Amino acid sequence: MTDAPGDVHRITTLADGLRVVTEHVPGVRSVAVGAWIGTGSRHENDQSRGYAHFLEHLLFKGNDRIDAEEISRYFDRIGTDVNAATTREYTVVHARVLDRHIGDALNVLGEMVFAPRMAQDDVDAEREVILEEIAMYEDSPSDVVHELADLLVFPGHALGLPIVGTTESITAARPGDVIRFHAHHYRGDNIVVSAAGALDHDEFVQLVQEQFVARRAGAVAVPSSGIDPTAHIVPPTIHVPHTELRRKDTEQVHLVLAGRGIQRNDERRHAAALLDTIFGNAPSSRLFLEVRERRGLAYSVYSFLSNHAEAGQAGLYVGVRPDRVAEVLEVVRAELDRITQEPPTAEEVELAKGHLEGRMLLSLESTTVRGNRLGASLINEMPIEPLERTVERIHAVTRDDLHALAQELFHPSKLSLAAVAEDIDDVRAAADGVGLLSIERAGAGA
Question: For 38-67, what is each residue's pLDDT tens digit?
């Protein structure tokens, strides 16, 4: 067991490689605890598509010692919820509990993470739930258009595929398949346990060993297959802008323009957050003011960023009525030209810096946010830097930095177009009219 002190956090690595990271927060009664597994949809192959998410669901089914109802009743009894999420690159199970409940909570979380039963009836029941989830996304045009954009930006790569998997892959999954996936990925050296709040680091590490890790003894024994679970992971190929227009019976036209962003550990990540704030991710941003406030063209309009290990995505979304799609695309094109052709104003930059700093510092009054910051950083192999240093990095970004990054991320020639609409011919004509139509993918419009 090794220990590494941080600024206000401490990290201990156990003998099997499992890492524990904590931060003591004075003046609170709660502890936000999370189990982070370095396994997401990008760690799947064609045979295991959607398994990381499927497994996340099955963790809540419990086992012969504590079943699904008992898990729910336990967290209800102590006045909290247990939640989970699957992303492209990790899975997390987390809860916020009173400090006096942390030992028992770790016991339950350990049973969930290390020893899910995954019997046939559990798999069959949860399969139906996930198939309903897939159907729900298919009925949501705004979700569909983002999935189309992902496929355009990361063609043929796991980063571009739906986290929930496909109807075919989930229907075909069997208990043995998911059990083997669990055995390959839920290893000590692939897990981080994070906690923030009313705790002592050394005492918490002891509880993790006695309550959380000890549950591994009840795990289903699976013979080693000799398979390296990360062997199929490859970086994405170069993005070539394309267009996909999907015909769907919907009241609005849903549009996403997206291209490659920056990878997670890029030194320009703070500049990217500022650029996103200025362009479309704040109430005073250019897209929001111009599209919604001044012209009333849309209810929902925003820019977005996502960052992964080797690549990222940057883009914008807007939902608009069909008779206004040409006008909204004209405005979007004008804003893309403006953000890439000249630096943002000094006033915009200072406003964005104040926005980011304030939002970050205010959020850290929550033990959940603090715990998530620790766990996500460690599982993603990112430094947990002092807050003061992060603020310094934000304020060090210049207008020229933002201008150069905007040219890289938001130049119209680098963006793919995804659209979901009832009349895709009108969308095609409107996009072509403002120079936002790239080569269409084969099969578009189906």
Answer: 999 999 998 899 999 999 999 999 999 999
Query: What is the rounded distance in angstroms from the CA atom of residue 117 to the CA atom of residue 112?
Result: 9
Per DSSP, the three-state class of 395 is helix
Instruction: Tell me: do 253 and 149 sit in the same domain.
Output: no
- Per the rule left: phi > 0, alpha: psi between -120 and 50, beta: everything else, 37 is beta
List, for residues 75-125, the tens digit of each pLDDT value. Answer: 999 999 999 999 999 999 999 999 999 999 999 999 999 999 999 999 999
Residue written as tokens 């390959």? 184
> Which CATH number do you get for residue 342?
3.30.830.10
Are 117 and 181 in the same domain? yes
Distance CA 404, CA 385 (A): 25
- The pTM of this model reads 0.93
List the catalytic residues. Answer: 56
Rounded Cα–Cα distance for residues 365 and 363 (Å) = 5
Could you tell me the residue range of the domain that residue 385 belongs to?
242-440
DSSP 8-state secondary structure symbol assigned to residue 28: -
Say if CB 125 and CB 112 are below 8 A apart.
no
Domain tally, the chain: 2
CA-nearest of 35, 62, 39 to 51 is 39
Q: What is the biggest distance separating any 2 CA atoms in the chain, rounded to whole angstroms?
A: 65
